[in-house]
Every structure is written in C-alpha cells, then in structure tokens.
Amino acid sequence: MPVSTRTSHRRQSTRRLQPRRPSLHTTRHLEPPDYSRDYADVRRDLTLIAIISSLLFIGVVGLSFVI
Predict the structure, then answer these.
(1) pTM over 0.90
(2) Cα 2 vs. chain centroid, distance in angstroms?
(3) Per-residue model confidence as pLDDT tens digits over 44-64
C-alpha cells in the first residue's frame, strides 16, 4: 500500500518539531580549583612527620648495632 502524501508530510513535520539535543562541544570548560594554599599546612606537617620518623628509624637501627 502506498503511503499518502498527507501522512508523509505529517511525519516530516513532527521530526522538525523535536527539540535539538545540545551538542557536547557547547559545554563550558571550568578550570579546576587551586587547593595549593589550602593544603600548605598539611604538606608542611607531613614533611615534618616524615623527617621525625626517618630520624627515629635511623636511631632504632643505630641502637640495634650498639645494644
């Protein structure tokens, strides 16, 4: 059965009325936040902990040879 022009015209018009999906290229690119100043105290504390633990480990190894 052939499709009438009325039906085909109606189908074409419904396709045109559908909203367009936004393309992926139109999204805004946000810069990542800079946390370096927020974590400066944490970094300093961690380096201090690393230095103290290294000195204590060296002390334990040194005492194992003496005792």
Answers:
(1) no
(2) 55
(3) 999 999 999 999 999 999 999
